């Protein structure tokens, strides 16, 4: 959707708002960018092949608002400026570009511990991003599960594969409400130029059990040598 600031809509939209009650009881499904929205509140209707919805309710779904100005006979709709939000996210990611391989690993581990997919994604290489973005979006950038979760990493071993590639192997604790266990992983980090910045980015993740911390994206099974 094209980012919108204040858009002045025609009188017909004002009439649509006034007629909102006429749409009550709609049970149509609304899917936007692959995600479903509750439509009982939207009163979504199809008439003569056209999709109709009260504009004020649609604006609220996107965290905005619609205001009818009777003096000007117009409706002003304000929606979040998604383009500016995208710039903000890019700036945050730019500030997080890892300057060392260890920093990339630490950020990914924190993302797993916090069940924060956006944090994990921020230190992925461009190739790994392209493979995982859709899955992160499908899970609304939330990973992991209610239990167990990853605790501190242990027995960290660092291996330099070449001047620009470092491989980490480690164990990690698994903690549930009444149970504790262990997991293990191997993470490969490479120095790359991405988004115009030189930094260290994760190119491969292998875990003994990719599902032991719940939904873990971008991970392959760790095979025994």
CATH architectural type of the largest domain: Roll
CATH class of the largest domain: Alpha Beta
Low-confidence segments, given as residue ranges, are: 1-24
Return the string of H and E elements: EHEEEEHEEHHHHEEEEE
In total, how many domains does the architecture comprise?
2
Side by side, the strands of the main sheet go 8-9-10-11-12
With helices defined by DSSP (H or I, 4 residues minimum), what is the helix count? 6
Radius of gyration of CA atoms, rounded to a whole number: 24 Å
Q: Structural class, judged by helices and strands?
A: alpha+beta
Q: What is the name of the CATH superfamily of the largest domain?
A: NTF2-like, domain 1
Query: How much strand content do the residues show?
Result: 35-45%
Can you give the helix content as a percent range?
A: 25-40%
End-to-end distance? 49 Å
Mean pLDDT: 82
Main sheet: strands, sense, barrel: 5 strands, mixed
CATH topology of the largest domain: Nuclear Transport Factor 2, Chain: A
Q: What's the overall geometry?
A: elongated
